[in-house]
Structures are given as C-alpha cells and as structure tokens.
Design a protein that fits this description.
It is a multi-pass membrane protein. The chain has 328 residues and is an all-alpha fold. The protein has helices at 22-33, 35-58, 62-66, 77-104, 115-147, 153-165, 175-194, 199-202, 204-211, 214-228, 237-244, 246-258, 279-305. It binds protoporphyrin IX containing FE.
C-alpha cells in the first residue's frame, strides 16, 4: 500500500536550520580569503626553489659547500623544496608579525589602508605562514624518508617522521639544538594562531594575552634559521641581510610597546604616583620596553660589527656526512 504524501511540516517537526558556530564560520571564511595569499606564497616558494636549484646545479650553492655530497639537485630536490618553503615561511612570518604589530600599536597617521583590511591581511597571512612552516618540515621529512634506502619502509617512515617532528630525536650536529627550536616555533604557531577562532569561548582577554606570545614563534624561527640554514651559514652578505631584516620588526615592536593602541596597555605613571598600574604590571611593562630597545640596538651592532655568528668559509670543502651540519 502506497503511503500518503505529507505536506512539509505537517505532523513532523520542522527541520531545524543548523547554524554553525561563529568561530567555524570565521575560520572557513578566512581560509577562503587566504587563497590568493597562499597562491602568492606558492609562487614565491617556486621562485626560491628555482633559484636554489640553479645554484646547486652550477656548483655555487652554499648548501653544497657545507655538505659536499649534496651536489646533485635532481636527487636532493626535496631538500631544496624544504629550504624554499622555509624561506617563504619566514618571509610570510615577517609580514604577518609586522601587520600584527601595526594593528596593536597606535595607528600611524597617513596609512592609506583601512583597519579591517589590515586585520584581514593579518589573519590570512598568518594562516598561510602556518601552512608554509608545516610544508617546510614535511618536505624535510620526505627527504629523509627518500634518503634512508637501507631501512625497511616502516622504519624509513618512522625515521623521517621522528627526526623531523619528535623533539630531541634528531641527534646530529647543530640540528640537536636547531631542529627542536624549529619544532618549538611550529608547535607554538599553530595554537597561538588558531586560538583567534575560539576567542568567543576562551574570552577576548585570554586570547589577547596568549596571542602576544606569537612574537616568541617569530624569534624561534629566526634563531632556527640563523643556526641551521646552510644558505646563511657563512658570515657573508645573505646572513647580514637576514639580520638587517629584523630591524624593522624590532622597531615596530618598540613602537607598539611605547604607543599601544589600547589605553589599558600604556605604561602610565610609576606606581605610587597616582592611578597607574600595579607595581608588578608596571615593572613588567617597563622591562618589556627596555628589552625591546636593547634588541633594537643589538640588531644595529651585530651587522655593523660583523659578529653575526656566521662561520668562516673553509679553504677546502669539508667531508661531511648527510644532514650532519657540523657544530662550530
Ligand atoms: C618541525 C619543524 C622544523 C624542522 C624539522 C626544520 C628543519 C630544518 C632543516 C633541516 C634546515 C636546514 C636546511 C639547510 O640545509 O639549509 C632548516 C632550515 C631552515 N628552516 Fe627549518 N625546520 C623547522 C621549522 C622551521 C620554522 C617554523 C621555520 C620558520 C619559517 C623554519 C625556517 C627555516 C629556514 C628559513 C631555513 C633556512 C633554509 C636555507 O638555508 O636555505 N623552519 N630547517
């Protein structure tokens, strides 16, 4: 017997229109908005990859100067791609940190871009940065898996994963320090970046307090690169440029601390002289400003003095084993 057709809503509950939580909507929207930005990042990565490939092919690569066995870009293309993602990741991290500092400091006069636009750029570039950092580490893991031909597949996969993602596992040369620093940057970047999308749940103040630690992610990323990047290994101009690029970041950080956008974050009069902040808060804020000023001075002194932590290029090429960047 055929059942009778029922008009919608008659005798059955009206199907509820499920609205996804605002956090999820915001993340989905930002992921969509990040597509042009991510496409630009892919182009930059491809350009850097091409540059590194040509240099390795021509024998001019500093990576090969540090690790002579790597003189074949056709074999080591995944390593080169990892390096390229590392550079685009660092460039995007630079950009997103600059945008964040611009937003949290008092708005400089004559800025031709609306605040909402800057905020959107900050969010999309930060999503792209996380993806680039992850791609950098993943390509390094892929290269290790490719390299370990003497192991069985399960062991190969584990070796690549553990050396790249398990802190303390990588046990060779400078990487024993540099890799965990890179991992620290990646593992902090993801929660600190994504907490924005759950700020309704954790509270705007908690989010703001946690989000400021993003500057640690940036410091760790630069530190990791200065320690381990073979293209900035020697005390020559590429390393100097990397140091100099940190000057605007430190200057913006100092400006942001001296002239915060939010009145509540101003230093104010010292405790005991009026309605200023409590003594520990005031002392922490004052210390932050002094440290930022000292970092700025340090960033001028390092390139000018030439004491930038770069190694001396040896007269003869060293005989190194794979992935064993010698500790200086
Ligand atoms: C799981 C985390 C990470 C791992 C396993 C890792 C691994 C490595 C390795 C092995 C190198 C040496 C490559 C060379 O020979 O130059 C390197 C360099 C580099 N890394 Fe990472 N890294 C990680 C996180 C990061 C993060 C978060 C950044 C920030 C964007 C970053 C940016 C760079 C850059 C710019 C270089 C220099 C590449 C070059 O000299 O061409 N890394 N990383």
């Amino acid at each position: 017997m055929a059942s009778e057709a029922r008009p919608a809503g008659a005798g059955s509950p009206t199907p509820a229109v499920r609205t996804p939580p605002p956090d999820r909507v915001a993340l989905r929207g930002d992921l969509r908005a990040a597509l042009p930005d991510a496409a630009a990042a892919v182009l930059v990565t491809a350009a850097v990859f091409g540059f590194l490939y040509v240099r390795m092919d021509s024998g001019a690569s500093d990576t090969v100067a540090v690790m002579p066995f790597m003189d074949d870009p056709g074999t080591y293309w995944m390593y080169l791609l990892s390096q390229a993602f590392g550079w685009s990741g660092l460039l995007w991290a630079w950009g997103t940190v600059m945008l964040g500092l611009l937003l949290s400091g008092r708005r400089p006069g004559g800025l031709p871009v609306r605040r909402e636009t800057l905020e959107r750029w900050h969010r999309t570039t930060s999503l792209t940065t996380m993806a680039l950092m992850a791609a950098h580490a993943l390509m390094f893991a892929a290269e290790l898996v490719r390299y370990e031909t003497s192991l069985a597949w399960a062991e190969r996969l584990w070796a690549g994963f553990a050396d790249s993602f398990v802190p303390g596992w990588y046990d060779s040369g400078t990487g024993q320090i540099a890799i965990p620093i890179g991992q620290g940057a990646l593992y902090l970047a993801v929660p600190l970046g994504l907490l924005f999308y759950v700020r309704h749940r954790i509270g705007a103040n908690t989010w703001r307090r946690l989000h400021r630690f993003v500057v640690v992610v940036y410091v760790l990323s630069v530190w990791h690169t200065l320690l381990y990047g073979t293209n900035v290994w020697y005390g020559e101009w590429p390393r100097t440029v990397l140091w100099l690029l940190q000057l605007p970041v430190a200057a913006m950080l100092l400006y942001r601390l001296l002239r915060p956008a939010r009145r509540a974050q101003r230093l104010g009069p010292p405790p005991g002289t009026g309605a200023g902040a409590l003594a520990p808060t005031w002392a922490t804020r004052a210390l932050g400003r002094v440290v930022a000023a000292a970092v700025l001075v340090g960033l001028v002194v390092v390139p000018v003095s030439g004491h930038d932590g770069g190694r001396d290029r040896p007269a003869e090429t060293p005989a190194t084993t794979p992935h064993d960047h010698a500790t200086e």
